[in-house]
Amino acid sequence: MKNVTKYKKGYYMPPERCTDWCAKDSIDKAPIWCSVDLRDGNQALVTPMSLEEKLEFFDMLVKIGFKEIEVGFPAASETEFTFLRRLIDDDLIPDDVTVQVLTQSREHIIKRTFEALKGCKKAIVHLYNSTSVAQREQVFGKDKAEIVKIAVDGAQLIKRLAEEDGGNYRFEYSPESFTGTEPEFALEICNEVINVFDPTPDKPLIINLPSTVEMSMPHVYACQVEYMHKHLLKRDCVQISLHPHNDRGCGVSDAEMGVLAGADRVEGTLFGNGERTGNVDIVTLAMNMYMQGVDPGLDFSDIPAIRDEYERLTNMTVPPRHPYAGQLVFTAFSGSHQDAIAKGLTYRKTHDKKIWDVPYLPIDPTDIGRSYDSDVIRINSQSGKGGVSYMLEQSFGYHIPKNMREAVGYAVKNASDHAHKELKPQEVFNVFSDHFINIETPVTFLRYTTNNISGGVEACVTVRYDGRTQDFIGRGNGALDAISDALKTNLGIMYSNLQYTEHALEEGSHSRAAAYVGITDPFDHKAWAVGIDTDIMRASVKALVGAINKLLTKHEKEFGEN
Q1: What kind and span of H or E run contains 453?
Q2: Architecture of the structural domain at 31-300
Q3: What percent of the chain is helix, strand and coil (3-state, nearest 5)?
Q4: 3-class SS at 281?
Q5: C-alpha to C-alpha distances, 439 to 476, 484, 530, 545, 546, nearest whole angstrom
Q6: What's the pLDDT at 369?
Q7: What does DSSP assign to residue 384?
Q8: Measuring CA to CA, how many Å separate 392 from each of 123, 369, 397, 436, 544?
Q9: Is the distance from CB of 168 to CB of 123 less than 8 angstroms?
């Protein structure tokens, strides 16, 4: 790209080394969360939410567990003003929830904001003005002292109006475009505002450090945050808040490193909605903590329901690869991945493991309302025997023998490949049933009888074969061995290495049993079949006949034999 020379770094490093945060490898406590979905998120929608939709969204945020919610910019439009009034007048704000409102540092906007807040039980008034070099030079044409005066004048007016109102107010200040502001100047203007508000430990001031435009690698933002953390006045009376955007795709990393650097609070949105590339995604941020054993203090136990509600109210779509919430993020199509997951889940169950460490699954999908059968193991032409066998077991109760899994896997994969689509669980079972269960051609099993004789068992097997009903006699060490001898002798087919296993499909006196039989012919062709019957012996004979039928059919195709 030929125009690269017109770009340069737009951020400023602190005047001192600020890398204490590097010594920490994880977040050990969730920050204070503030949702800005109803302000920053809503203003970024092609069609902003209606009043009723905003009320529904607010209710969803409350149910998730947000205690601080920025509800809008009430002076910006009549809709925003009316929404706040509706929340207040209809007493829709729970006692443990604080609403937050945004205002520019302009007298008429601040006064209109307090009109909207009249009668509110408690609120955060969020004051901002832009401080970056580019904004000072290009937008406002003001020097540093003039920019400081804008912030101080706004803070003084807000403090006076709050005292006159007598309401329960807290305050927040944002040096907008913080990431493009010299850290020394950001510190200066924030300290001037702190002096105006004169916060206390029981009523702290929020100093919000927004990456209004993400301009650097996340570690740079962390250094900037740490500098502020170390030098802000009355630090024990100040909550440092982060408001990352995602212009460079690193909003989550900005927030995580910023918390390590001393931040106490994070503003963001569900699924990263917001201006341009969006705000930091609180779902991802919170779940990243959850997967390391830190309680985020937000309830995402039913992410599919939250996602559906979000999509309905915003007309936005959560991408299928979105962390935690996307339709495909827990899905394994690859055969090796499916096999590892299936073995991991089995190992976890048999060893009664308490700590989650299943391969390829960073968290247990069921913790957030997902399921193994529909979300994790999904079948297409890339899938393997492990995934297919797991689905048949979990969804239909069939415990496919280890040596049979390859044959079943190939049958299902081929069906998916020919159809050129993913197979749903029922479609997988249909392939399994068509290829392996109660195969009745060219030989149809009708009945059998056995008699104990000296040295073993004699069996009579009645089948329909070659257009005739025939009785075959055989002997063996047990009933199935005797029946196998009868079929071998009279059908003229040779096989060895008979493998057998069985289990009940249901519980109760009339439950069905599943029997699995595998055999190998002299040409090393292996055939597996399944027999289903309420009688385990009949199920076993059906399975044996089915396996023989598969060999006979294969011989006829390859050698022209009957």
Answers
A1: strand 444-453
A2: Alpha-Beta Barrel (3.20)
A3: 45, 20, 35
A4: strand
A5: 24, 16, 8, 7, 4
A6: 96
A7: -
A8: 55, 21, 6, 13, 21
A9: yes
Model confidence over 67-110: pLDDT tens digits?
A: 999 999 999 989 999 999 999 999 999 999 999 999 999 999 99
Instruction: At 491, list the tokens.
Output: 């059908």
- The superfamily (CATH) of domain 444-559 is Alpha-isopropylmalate synthase LeuA, regulatory domain (3.30.160.270)
Structure tokens at 328: 């495909």
Which residues of the chain form CATH 3.20.20.70? 31-300
Strands 238-244 and 265-268: parallel
Distance of CA 14 to the CA centre of its chain: 37
pLDDT in tens, 361-413: 999 999 999 988 777 888 888 887 888 998 899 889 999 999 999 999 999 99
The tokens describing 485, both together, are 């001898």
For residue 103, the Cα-to-chain-centroid distance in whole angstroms is 35
- Start-end ranges of CATH 3.30.160.270 in the chain? 444-559
What average pLDDT does the chain have? 95
Interval 40-76: pLDDT, tens? 999 999 999 999 999 999 999 999 999 999 999 999 9
Q: How far apart are CA 532 and CA 516, in angstroms?
A: 9
Beta strands per DSSP E along 105-147? 123-130
